[in-house]
Design a protein that fits this description.
mainly alpha, 9 helices
Length: about 270
């Protein structure tokens, strides 16, 4: 499972460059050709928006594939995707990966619903939630399948989670501006900062699970719970202000989870 890590110099840098360039260039081209959306893209999916989303979610997988092919040709690609064959882990890890974020999402929503019915949990298993099943896998082939193990060779798990989480958050910027810039207006940066903290929390949790299992599959399921859980339980009718409140509250909850993990897993801080 570690053979794919024998890569050429600057492979990690190349991965990040390609992973960022694809969605940024695609978003710019789409805006120049079709213009920017006037509202929240998740509520008004168009062909143009679909192109942006597809470029974004495929970028980490494409970048990882290019990197391993550059060093090991088709054997590298086989090793990269071959990680998906390693799925036999204790049930406690599947329970953790699948439920940690959906359970947190519902708990935060229930607390917020005490103050506003807008935050009452919903159950929406529509196309967007279903699409998360595949989009998160495509992303994690790059983030967990390549970037995480490469970075773990050089720094502590906590640093990997923080640095890779920050990079992962910034990677969303172009698509977020396209998909939610008009919706949030002058408050966009506030919402983006709130969501970025949550993404860093996601990455720290996935790195912890990877440290314990070495599993790409569990990294995928953890990300699926994070993204799919929000698409399934958070109402899409929230206003901009309510969305910011939600993202801030969820991020605060994730900070609590991270501190709990660090308290119980001191080895995450090492190196």
């Amino acid at each position: 499972m570690q053979k794919h890590l024998d890569l050429k110099k600057n492979s990690l840098l190349l991965y990040f460059v390609v992973a960022f360039a694809l969605p940024i260039i695609t978003t710019i081209v789409v805006v120049l050709v079709a213009g920017a959306p006037s509202g929240l893209v998740v509520n008004e999916i168009s062909v143009a928006a679909l192109v942006v989303v597809l470029a974004m979610v495929h970028a980490p997988m494409i970048a990882a594939t290019i990197v391993v092919f550059r060093s090991q040709r088709f054997a590298g690609i086989a090793n990269l995707f071959g990680q998906l064959k390693y799925w036999k882990f204790g049930p406690q890890w599947y329970i953790t990966a699948i439920l940690i974020f959906p359970a947190t999402i519902v708990a935060v929503l229930l607390v917020l619903s005490l103050f506003s019915s807008s935050f009452t949990p919903v159950l929406s298993l529509g196309a967007m939630a279903f699409a998360a099943l595949f989009s998160t896998l495509l992303e994690e082939i790059g983030w967990t399948g390549l970037a995480t193990p490469l970075m773990l060779k050089k720094m502590s798990p906590l640093k990997v989670g923080l640095y890779l989480g920050f990079i992962h958050a910034m990677w969303h910027l172009a698509a977020n501006i396209y998909g939610a810039g008009a919706f949030h207006g002058n408050l966009f940066i506030v919402n983006f900062l709130a969501t970025s903290i949550g993404i860093i929390g996601l990455r720290i949790v996935t790195v912890w699970i990877y440290m314990r299992t070495g599993s790409l599959v569990l990294g995928w399921l953890t990300h699926l719970g994070f993204t799919g859980g929000q698409l399934s339980f958070v109402s899409l009718t929230l206003t901009s202000g309510e969305t910011i409140v939600w993202n801030a509250a969820f991020s605060i909850a994730l900070i609590g989870i991270v501190f709990l993990l660090l308290a119980r897993n001191r080895d995450l801080i090492g190196r």
